[in-house]
Amino acid sequence: MLELRNLSKTYAGRPVLAKLNWTFHAGEFVAVMGESGVGKSTLLNLIAGLDQPDAAAAPPIVLDGVAMSALDDDAATRLRRQKMGFIFQAFHVLPHLTLLQNVALPLLLNGLPQQRAEEMLDAVGLQGRGGDYPHQLSGGQMQRVAIARALVHRPGLVLADEPTGNLDPETAHGVLTLLRKEIKASDACTIMVTHSHAAAEMADRTLVLTSSGLQETTFVNRFAQ
Fold first, then answer.
1. Residue 9: exposed, middle, or buried by beta-carbon count in 10 A (0-12, 13-18, 19+)?
2. What's the pLDDT band for 225 if we cut at 50, 70, 90?
3. String of DSSP letters for 33-99
4. What are the boundaries of each domain within the chain?
5. Cα Rg for the chain, rounded, in angstroms?
6. What are the residues whose beta carbons fall under 8 Å from the beta carbon of 19, sequence distance 6 or more?
7. Which among 48, 164, 173, 224 is least buried, having the fewest CB atoms inside 10 angstroms?
């Protein structure tokens, strides 16, 4: 699904990520933890093609057999639009659009039928709220909209950057339970950056990012097989 091959990133001569290697599989929910400043959000930005890795002899990021470094800006944008979904700590729900319009946006951009947007709103527990606007929602409800929007076009890869950082523990647990249910139903690979051990418990496995690379932790995941 997604391969990292000696992935490195340097800013102003300072190495942030150094020779990361890992393979992420379809349907796998992975939490990535680590100290602040270690490069977790940078990792997501590189995977998404929003930032460029250091030059390498071999393609450092390969998604479904496609080398991200071989794509020009237009091709990278199309790949993100078609194959990726994003969930952010700050929600990024567009305030001037209704909930239905927010969720339908990836369908519109991909030229797909719009009816699945309403189905996804139902799936995340917001039945009959499609005509409402984000200012009418709680933080937990807005994150539910963000989950629906991220999954509505059935992406193969979901990237989540601190998706529960602005939520109270009870709401966060509900949002993560929903996220896990929906990504398992769609068989999407999901990489979630988080500082929260409670959030990491919801994943299939937890990786720790350090200056030495990515390492799987012995941290016990709540849903581990």
1. buried
2. very low
3. E--TTSSHHHHHHHHHTSS-PPP-SS-SEEETTEEGGG--HHHHHHHHHHHEEEEETT----TTS-H
4. 2-43+53-216
5. 17
6. 6, 7, 8, 213
7. 224
pTM exceeds 0.85 for this model: yes
| The listed CATH number (3.30.2320.80, 3.40.50.920, 3.30.365.10, 3.40.50.300) that belongs to domain 2-43+53-216 | 3.40.50.300
Are the CB atoms for 200 and 173 separated by under 8 Å? Answer: no
Instruction: Please tell me whether residue 220 adopts helix, strand or coil conformation.
Output: coil
Mean pLDDT for the stretch of residues 219-223: 57
Residue 139 parent element (H or E): helix 139-151
Nearest to 185 by CA among 143, 125, 123, 118: 123
How far is it, in rounded angstroms, from Cα 188 to Cα 165? Answer: 22
Type of residue found at 85: G
Please say if the pLDDT value at position 223 is more than 60: no
Higher pLDDT, 207 or 165: 207
